[in-house]
Amino acid sequence: MSAALDRVTREDWLMFVNACFACTGQREFYSDGHGQSVSIDFLHQYILGNYRRLYARALACGVNDFNASLILANLLETGKATPADHKAEEGALIARALETLPAHRAMHLLERLAKRRVNNRRTRAIIRQFLGSRPNPEHHAVKYRRSFRRAALHAHLRLEGEYATFFLRGANMRAYATPLFEAFRKAHYSASAIYELPFSIAEGLAQKHGVPRDTFLKRIEPNLTHTERLRLQSASHDSLGAAYALEPNKLPLTKLASYIVSRPDRAARRAELHDALWASARRAVRRSNARFGKVACVLDRSYSSSGSTEKRRRPLAVALAASYFLRAASAEYIPFWTHPTGDELLVDARGATDLATPILDALETEPDLLVIVSDGFDNDPPGIAGQVLQAACARLRVPPIVHINAVFDAESYAPKSLCRAVPTMGIRDAEELPTAILFARFARADVHLDEVLASLDARVRHFLRPPTKRAA
Amino acid sequence: MMKTAKLALTNLRTGSPQTLGAIRLVPICRDRAPGDLRIRLRDLVPAPAIVSLDGAPGEPGLKYVSYVPHGLVVAHTKDGAQASFGTTLGEERGARGRCVNLLHRMVKREDDVREGATSTARFRLLPLHLAMEGFLAHHFGGPDIAWSEYSQHAIRRGLDPRAESSVRGRSLPGFEAALRVFEMHPTQVGVMIFVADALASVFVVSHPSDYRLLHRSVLEDFFGQLVYEYGLLYPETPPIETPLHEERIASISDLRAEVARARGEWEEYARLLADGLFRREVRVETVRSMAPFRLERFMPDFDPDEECHLGERIVRDDGTVEYMKTFRLSAAQVRRAHLLEQLARAGWNLGDAAARLRCTRDELVKRLDNAGFGYLLAPHVLRASGTAP
Questions:
Q1: pLDDT at A112
Q2: Does residue A289 contact residue A329 with C-beta atoms inside 8 Å?
Q3: For A403, phi and psi rounded to 5 degrees?
Q4: Which stretches make up the ARG and Rhodanese-Phosphatase-superfamily-associated domain (chain B) (predicted)?
Q5: What distance in Å separates the CA atoms of residue A74 and residue A90, rounded to the nearest whole number?
Q6: Which of A29, A300, A380, A393 to mutate to test the interface with B (most CBs of B within 10 A)?
Q7: 10 Å Cβ neighbour count for A95?
Q8: DSSP state letter for A153
Q9: DSSP string over A159-184
């Protein structure tokens, strides 16, 4: 009985973590956003109700930001149900996870807690601690003014200095002593003052003052964050004639790959983009300490990897990033795209999905590890890839095979798998391939739950270490 | 000029089906497209259209009235050179700003004004409406002998007005989503559309890049009522798998052979599903010939026990299908055509026709009335057979 229970726990846990890597509640190629959010909400409630400790510990596994904030909200909402001996760890996990979330996600989470009227002592303490520990509180107050105010009120925060007046009266004040607040006030009345503000706030005010887009983009440049810089590449190119200077070494691998597959001019900038991506991949490999031997990789570039309007070319970007990552991490690397491409960097999403042929080609090279990056749908002929893998695993000597899937399938509560014999792992960014390959081991039938829990313990300890710089 | 022939997808091959919900789409691929016949879409104003079948538009004469969302422009060369749309690419010649599209003939030549400037000849056709018009005009003249059983209307005006209804592709449940997630092959030139594994339509063009632009245009085509009902009644097509024989596999090359076998089975399966269209002989009428191509429309024998598809196609001299579009008639439509055909074969004599159909005269009158042809019969005939006038 206990063995069966362990098995169910292990499978549920893996399904949940997998879903948390891949699902973002956004529309995918094959399913709509609503179905995704219904499906993932149900999964969260199920795991929260049955395995509360494991649910909290998922925060330490590198789940994506969407799911991390969902876990945080659910945990804080149901604080009463926490077992007494788990309270301390859960609290620490929550506080640490909130710190590692990107600022906008964290602020929106606090606002959501206020909206959902989650107002227990722990929630108030967490909000107080989070807002009080911001390194640059004025910047936060200006950039996230509404969320900040709502969360502060909700947590009965005692506001010091000019915060109270700033939240209450905003721009309707004679003057502020705090420079950033003063800039915020001035910017409401004068177009020249908007350039001291964060970009997202200045953008609205520029609209209000009718500042021409190119003037605005030119002068706001020093205030841009790196992500904003990346996002505004084509906008700045259109209006300024030159894109904002990017520092590719600050961009994480998958984000850079996403940017590259979106560029119509990649052929012309091939050398530059390749160098940036390669450097980023090398850095990611160094950080993860991953080393593989001879790796063959089957990469899906069929039309479905064009993603959806909300996640444009995301699966393709993950495949490209995975290819660069594995090339940097392995002694010998052979890629097999579903439609062979002369130049990986110029890869685009087209054609039907024939996974069987590249899988057979890959197996023929006798690699030490076979990685398949695909959304799990194959249609040329339908379902044959799974059968090929099943037959190969049953009848032939094959290397370890891992199927990596960046797409959440709402109907099966998990990234769609190819067959039973090959573990399917959800993935958020290609940088996390080593984690996925490690977790894939847990999906094997002979792995005991204790082993999974031990690895989880280690991750929680690592996650709760005194804060150093967060890995990007 | 009518002749009979069997349809075939000559020089084309089918790929593996892709399924979503009730819709199964089978790609049709062409390995070599010479490019001397190109087809593109012309959008019309979204309004009903009146097509003059004889005489100029706006003048009295035989008209075909329907919702016609688009036409196809076919450009072709005689000498096998690349066909081009010339300088008029993207130009709209439809009647803008009117509430009705007035169109001249189903197939109309549209050559460049500067005749001789290019070797490309062009004509416009109204897809499927060409075939549908042929179907509606079948025995359109009505009785050729003035038997006293027929109404004055039937004697004077024949079947006029003759009407059939159909369903727009956009209304087929799940069709739009299935087209959206369909992954096109690089050499794909056509698609077979199955709804709940019943063949709804076959659509083929001559060039892969034309097909890419026309892929979604089938949403605006019309489909039979039967297909629509199938889509509602069977929202899921059962998944089909071709199992690999594991016991035959000892090496990777064995596995490769098994995959090739499975691929072949899928092609066989698509052929089996589409058998209703390709097995039977159809009557083919040449609408326009422009060597080396022929534009033809076809319809089958209207047998109520069989699938009946009508359509149109462009074939090259060597039998290569360059364009094809078919429409599946619903059971009621087949019945109506069947009754008319039997009547016509019996010289419109009710008694003889009843004998051909192995029923009594009264029963035939009832059947005609139920099929919507009551207006052809004189009131006293309807009354005598117990059918309310």
A1: 94
A2: no
A3: -105, 120
A4: 7-290
A5: 12
A6: A380
A7: 17
A8: H
A9: --TTHHHHHHHTT-SS--SSHHHHHH
- Give the per-residue pLDDT at A447: 82
* Selection from A301, A258, A294 nearest residue A276 by Cα: A258
Q: Where are the alpha helices (DSSP H) in A290-355?
A: 314-329
What is the rounded distance in angstroms from the CA atom of residue A86 to the CA atom of residue A457?
13
pLDDT of A470 = 47
Q: Which pLDDT score, from 0 to 100, does residue A96 have?
A: 94
Best of A336, A366, A379 to mutate (most B CBs within 10 Å, chain B): A379
When pLDDT is averaged across residues B170-196 and rounded to a whole number, the result is 93
Structure tokens at A388: 């090929």
Among partner residues B239, B250, B259, which is closest to A388 by beta-carbon distance? B259
Q: Do A380 and B246 touch (CB under 8 A)?
A: no
pLDDT for the residue A472: 39
Residue A221's H or E segment, with its range, is none
Number of helical (H) and strand (E) elements in chain A, helices listed first = 22, 7
- How far is Cα A409 from Cα A407, in angstroms, rounded to an integer? 6
Residues of chain A with pLDDT under 50: 470-472
CB pairs under 8 A between A and B: 82
A379 vs B18, B251, B255: nearest CB: B18
Q: Give B118's pLDDT tier (boundaries 50, 70, 90).
A: low
Among residues A263, A313, A256, A314, the alpha carbon closest in space to that of A280 is found at: A256
- ipTM value of the model? 0.85
3-state secondary structure chain B: CEEEEECCCCCCEECCCEEECCEEEEEEECCCCCCCEEEEEEECCCCEEEEECCCCCCCCCCEEEEECCEEEEEEECCCCCCCCCHHHCCCCCCCCCCCCEEEECCEEECCCCCCCCCCCEEEEECCCHHHHHHHHCCCCCCCCCCCCCECHHHHHHCCCCCCCCCEEHHHCCCHHHHHHHCCCCCCEEEEEEEECCEEEEEEECCCHHHHHHHHHHHHHCEECHHHHHHHHHCCCCCCCCCCCCHHHCCCHHHHHHHHHHHHHHHHHHHHHHCHHHHCCEEEEEEEEEECCEEEEEEEECCCCCCCCEEEEEEEECCCCEEEEEEEECCHHHHHHHHHHHHHHHCCCCHHHHHHHCCCCHHHHHHHHHHHHHHHHECHHHHHHCCCCC
Gap between the Cα atoms of A190 and A197, Å rounded: 13
Q: How far is Cα A395 from Cα B258, in angstroms, rounded to an integer?
A: 13
Candidates A396, A113, A273; CA nearest to B250 is: A396
Report whether pLDDT(B252) > 60.
yes
| Spatial CA neighbour of A337 closest among A327, A348, A328 | A348
Q: pLDDT digits over A310-367, tens only?
A: 899 999 999 999 999 999 999 999 999 999 988 999 999 999 999 999 999 999 999 9
Label residues A308-325 b or e (16+ Cβ within 10 Å = b).
Answer: beebebbbbbbbbbbbbb
Dihedral angle computed from the Cα positions of residues A380, A381, A385 and A386, in that order, rounded to the nearest 10 degrees: 140
What integer pLDDT is reported at residue B1 of this predicted model? Answer: 64
- What number of other Cβ atoms are within 10 A of residue B99's Cβ? 8
Amino acid at B335: R
Contacts of B239 in chain A (CB under 8 A): 382-383
Tell whether B181 lies on the interface with A, counting CB pairs under 8 A: yes
User: What is the pLDDT, as a whole number, of residue B93?
Assistant: 53
CA–CA dist B193, A471 (Å, integer): 50
